[in-house]
Amino acid sequence: MANRFDVWLALAAAVIMTASPAGAQVLGPYSWQLQPFCNNLTLTLTQQGNIYTVDGFDDQCGAAQRAPLVGLATVNPDGSVGFGLHIITVPGGRPVDVDARMSIATLNGPWTDSVGNSGNFTFAARTGGSARPLPALSSSKLVSSGLTTGVTTLPLNTNVVVRTVTLAIPAAGQVMANASGLFDLLTGSGFTQFTWCSISTGVTVETAHYIYTRASGTNVMSNVPFAGTRVFSVTPGPFTVNLVCYASSSLFDFYGTLQTVQLSALFVPD
C-alpha cells in the first residue's frame, strides 16, 4: 500500500491532468476508513477522460466476505476530490451508496451514505469501531390477511382473534395497520346487541382503541360496515398485529358474526 506522500503526489498530478486527459493512468490501490465505523474501503482509480472510475471493496470490518463496490471520482471546482461509491453488502445483496469528499492536502474529508450514516473519510486508518449499520431490506413492506367472504362467529362474551398478520421488521420505524369488514346484526330482535373490535398486539379488545356497533329494540339494520387504522412504533424483529373482536347481548343465547373481514399492515422505516 502506498504511503501518504505517494498518494498526495498521484492525486495532485491527477488534478493537473484533468485539463489534458490524453495520458490515462491507474492510481492505487489506496484505503480509507469510514469512521466512526470499522469499515475499510480499498479503492483503485482508473482515468477515463476528466473523471476516474473506481473499483474495489468494503472489507466489512475484516469479515470473511468482502462487499464489492464501484463508482466514480472527480475533481471538484473547489479543489477537493469527490467520490460516489455503490456498495453491495454481503451476504444478502443490500445496496448502499456512499458520497465522500476529501482534500488533496490531507487526503481526508466527510462522508455520508444513502441510509443516513456519516462520519470522517480517513486515509489509511484502522482505528476500530462497530460495523456500519446495514441498509433496511426495503423502504416499505405490506402484508395482508387477504379478503374472505365467509362468516366469522363470535361466541358471546369471548375475545376472538379474527385476523392476524406478522411482519419481519428490518429496522426501526412505524407500522400502520388497517382493518375493515361488516358487523352482522340480527334484525327485529327486540334485544340489545353489542360488538367491539380493536387492532391490537394482544389477544383482547382494547377499550381505548375499539371499533364499536350497538343495536337495540326492533332495529332494521343487518350489516354495518366498519374500518379502523392504528399506528405502532416498531424495532427490528418479528411484529404481529391482530384484529380482536368481542360480542355481547342482553339475550344470553345470542352470538355475534362478522363478514368480509380483512387486516393489512404496512411497515415504513424511520
Describe the protein's architecture and organization.
With 270 residues, the chain is mostly beta strands. It has one helix at 4-17; strands at residues 26-35, 40-48, 51-58, 67-75, 81-88, 95-102, 109-113, 118-123, 141-144, 151-154, 160-169, 173-184, 193-200, 210-215, 223-234, 237-249, 256-269. A hairpin with a 5-residue loop joins strand 4 (67-75) and strand 5 (81-88). The protein is rod-shaped and about 90 Å long. Residues 16-22 have low confidence and may be disordered.
Task: Give the helices and strands, then pairings.
Blueprint: H1 4-17, E1 26-35, E2 40-48, E3 51-58, E4 67-75, E5 81-88, E6 95-102, E7 109-113, E8 118-123, E9 141-144, E10 151-154, E11 160-169, E12 173-184, E13 193-200, E14 210-215, E15 223-234, E16 237-249, E17 256-269
Antiparallel strand pairs: 1-2, 1-8, 2-3, 3-4, 4-5, 5-6, 6-7, 7-8, 9-17, 10-17, 11-16, 12-15, 12-17, 13-14, 13-16
Q: What's the quick description here?
A:
This protein is mainly beta and 270 residues long. It has one helix spanning 4-17; strands spanning 26-35, 40-48, 51-58, 67-75, 81-88, 95-102, 109-113, 118-123, 141-144, 151-154, 160-169, 173-184, 193-200, 210-215, 223-234, 237-249, 256-269.
CATH architecture classification of the largest domain = Sandwich
How many domains make up the coordinates? 2
What's the number of extended β-strand segments?
17
Straight-line N-to-C gap: 40 Å
Query: What amount of the residues lies in strands?
Result: over 45%
Sheet with most strands: strand arrangement: 1-2-3-4-5-6-7-8
For this structure, the CATH topology of the largest domain is Jelly Rolls
